[in-house]
Design brief:
Layout (H helix, E strand, L loop, with lengths): L4 H27 L7 H22 L4 E4 L3 E3 L6 E9 L1 H5 L6 E8 L2 E9 L4 E6 L3 E4 L3 E2 L12 E4 L7 H13 L5 E3 L4 H9 L5 E4 L4 H13 L3 E3 L7 H4 L2 E4 L1 H12 L3
Parallel strand pairs: 1-3, 9-10, 9-11
Antiparallel strand pairs: 1-2, 3-4, 4-5, 5-6, 6-7, 7-8, 11-13, 12-13
Helix pairs in contact: 1-2, 5-6
Length: 264
C-alpha cells in the first residue's frame, strides 16, 4: 500500500541503512576468527547505520528533533515532530552472525507515534505502519494479530537480560510462571522484531521490561495498527517511556497481563 510522504522518507532511510548493515553483516563471519573479535566492528556498523538514517531524515525534514540510541537527543526547531531511531536492534545477533536484527524508526508528533518502519535487510522484510492506515509487510500484505483466545494455545516472545539487576530476577520468575501456561516462549534478541512478528500473527503475545523508547516506539504502533493491544505492567499506556510492554490481541493481552501481575 502506498504510504505518505513522511513514511516514504522513513522507508528510504531504513533501506539505505539496511544496505550498509547487510554489507557489514557479510564481514562478521570473517571477524569471528580474529583474536580481537568483531565487537568493535559491530559498534562501528551500528554508528554508521545511525548516521545514514539521521542524514537521510535530516535532509528531508531539517527542523525535526531526534532521539537516537547512539547519539541521544538532538533538539530541532519544529517543536512538534521527533524521530525515534534504533539503527541496529539486535546487536548481539548481528555480532554472532544471526540474521535476526532490524533498523527501526518511529515518528512522534506531539507525543504520539504516527508512523514506523522496522526493516530486516537480511530477511528482506520491511514492516510499516501509519496511524489509521494499518500495518503492512513489504507494502503487499496487510497485517493482523493472531486470533487465538487462550494462553495455552499462544506462543509468546520476551527478552531476558542477565545484568545482575533486580528486574532480571523478576523476568526469570515470570518465565518460570508463564511457561506451563503457554504453548511456547521464544527469545529473538530484538524487541522490534518481536513486535513486528506479533503484528504479523507469528507470535501471539510479547512482554518485556527495561526497554528503551527506540526499542518500543516503532513496534508499538505496528501492533496497534494490526488490531493488537499494548499496555505497561500496570495496564497503563506509558510503555514507550517506562519500558514495560505487554502486548497481544485483546483477549490474550488481558490474560497475559493478569498472569504477570500474579508474579509480583
Amino acid at each position: 500500500m502506498p504510504g505518505s510522504a513522511l513514511l516514504n522518507i522513513m522507508l528510504k532511510a531504513a533501506l539505505k541503512a539496511g544496505r550498509s548493515l547487510t554489507r557489514d553483516f557479510g564481514e562478521v563471519e570473517n571477524l569471528q576468527v580474529s583474536r580481537k573479535g568483531p565487537a568493535d566492528f559491530v559498534s562501528a556498523a551500528d554508528r554508521k547505520a545511525e548516521e545514514i538514517v539521521r542524514d537521510e531524515l535530516l535532509k528531508a525534514r531539517p527542523t525535526y528533533s531526534f532521539l537516537m540510541e547512539e547519539q541521544g537527543e538532538i533538539k530541532g526547531t519544529d517543536g512538534q515532530h521527533r524521530w525515534i531511531i534504533d539503527p541496529l536492534d539486535g546487536t548481539t545477533n548481528f555480532l554472532h552472525g544471526i540474521p535476526m536484527f532490524a533498523c527501526a524508526i518511529a515518528l512522534e508528533r506531539n507525543g504520539e507515534i504516527i508512523a514506523s518502519v522496522i526493516h530486516n535487510p537480511v530477511m528482506d522484510e520491511t514492516f510499516t505502519a501509519e496511524r489509521g492506515g494499518g500495518a503492512w509487510l513489504n507494502d503487499r500484505r496487510r497485517l493482523r494479530v493472531a486470533g487465538r483466545k487462550h494462553l495455552a494455545e499462544a506462543v509468546a516472545s520476551t527478552g531476558i537480560k542477565l545484568t545482575g539487576k533486580p528486574e532480571d530476577a523478576r523476568a526469570i520468575k515470570q518465565v518460570a510462571h508463564l511457561n506451563p501456561a503457554l504453548a511456547g516462549i521464544r527469545r529473538t534478541g530484538s524487541a522490534s522484531t518481536d513486535l513486528a512478528w506479533l503484528a504479523a500473527g507469528r507470535f501471539d503475545a510479547f512482554w518485556e521490561a527495561g526497554l528503551a523508547p527506540w526499542d518500543v516506539a516503532p513496534g508499538l504502533l505496528m501492533v496497534k495498527e494490526a488490531g493488537g493491544f499494548v499496555s505497561d505492567y500496570s495496564g497503563g499506556t506509558k510503555s514507550i517511556w517506562n519500558g514495560e510492554v505487554v502486548a497481544g490481541n485483546e483477549t490474550i493481552q488481558a490474560q497475559l497481563l493478569k498472569a504477570l501481575k500474579a508474579v509480583d
